[in-house]
Inverse folding.
């Protein structure tokens, strides 16, 4: 055989070409990845968690999905019954319920309580009247006769009653709290007359539509202020509380209905008094007050002042006014952990610290005033992941602390109206939900459902791996989830993608209960990536000092934790390629992603920043002022927010960055991303951009398109591969729910 001589230069070129051979992702590869997205995994989960609909004191029903459809289950926990009956149709269930209760049942889609607004109206506790806004004034409608009565007359534009506008969130429904007997309403008159505006414009053929609304920013001299009032309904009368207007704030956020109703307001059972909390603009000062509902005279009870920001709970208001004993259950992190305290409502003094220890009360669930027992959720007390919530009870004096849900995992509970029973559903990222019925002593009464994943597992789906690493300080434990391809070859190297949401109101993992699909983390892994979600420091479900680690510098965004966490994982798992690190996130995660690309340009090679609040001076006032403090202007024209703004570091970009934003985003206005674009162009930096002309913060129906573009971007730029051309995502509805 004749030898063929090949020049050494050509040999080098051939070798290089072989080394750089690109992986071609086929439509089948993308279809496999798409099979791990929620709209494909959810239909394969049977007998999932229970959402009880309580019928009376303790009986309830729920609907459960099966491989072929669904079942309705009727449960009676009474000692002489203790039954769990299955019905295949709604008609059969309704007949059974009517037989035992004597009351007809409406169709299941009607079995929903009224929310904080009930659409554009809030219904009274007795269900007879509904309060609504018309022409900036408050009205009530008799639901039987349809007769309408005007309750207020002096409401005007930008100074109306019960208006729902927190800058980033608004609706036409009123924010108010009915008294228990439905004869009084607690609400406010919202003064926004001199508040600055935000503007968005639609994209269309012809003249665009301008959307303008009140949207205060950090440092603005004027923010919305609320004058608190109590309104008599039967004979309309407005009683103004005799205190100065409060900032449009609550202990949870500036959306003063973010817990589901008018926040930080508590009527007494006899409607004679209204307890409420006034929050300072920077969330450092909380004033507990009690108003005489007939005169409007307000009594100052006590004040709590916090050096950083006050935390009242995790998505719920964790305080109660107990009129019969004239006591207050109050939530505080004053000993570095979130705990409950019992106050004397007359003296404003602490009587006892009810709970204590290196763990966190996360939700006050029920207060039994007769037995002096408190029921609550807490995290970090039991062994294992500190983010798992368990259900407990304790006496008012702090004695007899009892764990009511002993099974390991993250628990959620639903209590019967009479407080004798509760449904307990528990799970973890690695274990599917189990639902049981327990007595309020914690005794197991009935096994309700155990989730069946067999159809899902048959597709090759696997749960993520829970891990722990050390934070950037080398001491603090962090927790996260690791997603790997179902066909992982541990002898190979895989690029790693960091999904980030830094909080500080939650974190990258977010919900620690079972979820078959978390964003598109497993889907992305199926394409040949390792995907990680690290719950960095500054998460509120840990100690106060842990939560405050980023206070005053939100641009930190847990990025030092992300870097050191990924480095530790690469040492632990040899299949992680530390030279190919990507990152992506949405909203606060978009802010963090761009920050990662600019501040750690040699570590993060590819980033996708979606809808980021890149400069908190351009985001709603409450967010920055709560977690960064009030804006302070310096003599040189800078301020304490300047060093946190992403556009100031855009010149450092080295890798590939995609920016995305909806141009009708009324939460994080698109000007946040435009500031970064302006800086990138001034620095002569290349970038990629996806915009959604008429879309809100989450892109609405274009979410699947953004997901596909995200996959394409990581495949092309982090993996060095070739994605299929314009793969079409195919969202669908679970056929078992299609007729609901």
């Amino acid at each position: 055989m004749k030898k063929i001589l090949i020049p050494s230069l050509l040999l080098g070129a051939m070798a290089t070409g072989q080394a750089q051979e690109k992986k071609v992702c086929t439509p089948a590869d993308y279809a496999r990845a798409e099979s791990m997205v929620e709209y494909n995994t959810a239909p394969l989960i049977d007998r999932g968690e229970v959402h009880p609909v309580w019928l009376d004191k303790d009986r309830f029903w729920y609907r459960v999905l099966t491989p072929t459809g669904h079942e309705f289950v009727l449960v009676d926990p009474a000692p002489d019954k203790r039954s769990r009956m299955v019905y295949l149709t709604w008609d059969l269930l309704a007949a059974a319920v009517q037989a035992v209760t004597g009351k007809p049942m409406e169709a299941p889609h009607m079995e929903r309580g009224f929310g904080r607004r009930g659409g554009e109206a809030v219904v009274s506790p007795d269900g007879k009247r509904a309060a609504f806004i018309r022409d900036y004034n408050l009205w009530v409608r008799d639901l039987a006769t349809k007769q309408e009565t005007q309750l207020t007359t002096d409401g005007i534009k930008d100074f109306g009653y019960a208006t729902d506008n927190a800058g980033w969130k608004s609706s036409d429904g009123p924010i108010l709290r009915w008294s228990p007997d439905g004869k009084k309403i607690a609400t406010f008159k919202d003064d926004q007359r001199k508040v600055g505006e935000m503007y968005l414009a639609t994209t269309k053929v012809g003249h665009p539509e301008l959307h303008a609304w009140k949207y205060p920013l950090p440092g603005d001299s004027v923010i919305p202020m609320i004058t608190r009032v109590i309104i008599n309904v039967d004979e309309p009368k407005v009683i103004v509380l005799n205190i100065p207007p409060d900032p449009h704030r609550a202990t949870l956020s500036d959306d003063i209905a973010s817990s589901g109703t008018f926040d930080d307001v508590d009527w007494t059972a006899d409607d004679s008094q209204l307890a409420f909390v006034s929050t300072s603009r920077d969330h450092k000062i909380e004033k507990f007050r009690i108003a005489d509902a007939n005169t409007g005279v307000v009594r100052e009870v006590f004040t709590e002042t916090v050096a950083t920001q006050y935390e009242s709970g995790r998505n719920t208001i964790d305080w109660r006014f107990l009129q019969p004993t004239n006591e207050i259950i109050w939530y505080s992190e004053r000993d570095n952990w979130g705990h409950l305290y019992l106050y004397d409502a007359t003296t404003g003094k602490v009587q006892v610290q009810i709970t204590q220890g290196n763990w966190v009360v996360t939700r006050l669930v029920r207060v039994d005033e007769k037995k002096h027992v408190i029921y609550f959720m807490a995290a970090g007390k039991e062994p294992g992941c500190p983010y798992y919530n368990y259900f407990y009870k304790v006496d008012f004096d702090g004695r007899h602390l009892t764990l009511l849900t002993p099974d390991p995992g993250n628990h959620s509970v639903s209590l019967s109206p009479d407080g004798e029973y509760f449904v307990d559903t528990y799970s973890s990222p690695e274990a599917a939900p189990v639902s049981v019925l327990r007595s309020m002593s914690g005794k197991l009464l009935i096994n309700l459902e155990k989730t069946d994943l067999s159809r899902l597992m048959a597709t090759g789906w696997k749960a993520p791996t829970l891990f722990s690493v050390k934070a950037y300080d080398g001491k603090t434990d962090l927790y996260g989830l690791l997603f790997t391809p179902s066909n992982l070859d541990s002898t190979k190297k895989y690029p790693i993608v960091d999904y980030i949401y830094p909080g500080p109101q939650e974190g990258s993992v977010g919900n620690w209960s079972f979820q078959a699909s978390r964003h598109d983390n497993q889907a992305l892994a199926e394409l040949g990536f390792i995907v990680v979600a690290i719950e960095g420091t500054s998460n509120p479900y840990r100690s106060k000092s842990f939560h405050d680690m980023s206070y005053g510098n939100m641009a930190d965004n847990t990025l030092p934790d992300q870097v050191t966490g990924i480095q530790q994982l690469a040492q632990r798992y040899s299949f992680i390629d530390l030279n190919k690190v990507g990152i992506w996130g949405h909203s606060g995660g978009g802010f963090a992603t761009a920050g990662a690309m600019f501040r750690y340009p040699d570590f993060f090679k590819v980033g996708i920043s979606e809808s980021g609040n890149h400069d908190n001076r351009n985001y709603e006032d409450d967010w920055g002022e709560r977690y960064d403090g009030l804006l302070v202007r310096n003599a040189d024209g800078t301020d304490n927010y300047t060093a946190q703004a992403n556009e100031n570091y855009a010149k450092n970009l080295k890798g590939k960055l995609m920016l995305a934003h909806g141009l009708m985003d009324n939460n994080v206005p698109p000007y946040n991303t435009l500031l970064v674009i302006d800086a990138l162009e001034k620095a002569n930096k290349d970038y990629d951009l996806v915009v959604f002309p008429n879309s809100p913060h989450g892109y609405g129906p274009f979410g699947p398109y953004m997901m596909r573009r995200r996959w394409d971007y990581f495949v092309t730029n982090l993996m060095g591969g070739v994605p299929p051309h314009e793969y079409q995502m195919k969202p669908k509805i679970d056929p078992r729910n299609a007729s609901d």
About this structure: DSSP finds twelve helices and 42 strands in the chain. The first helix runs from residue 8 to 19. Confidence is low (pLDDT under 50) at residues 1-19, 109-113. The two ends are 75 Å apart (CA to CA).
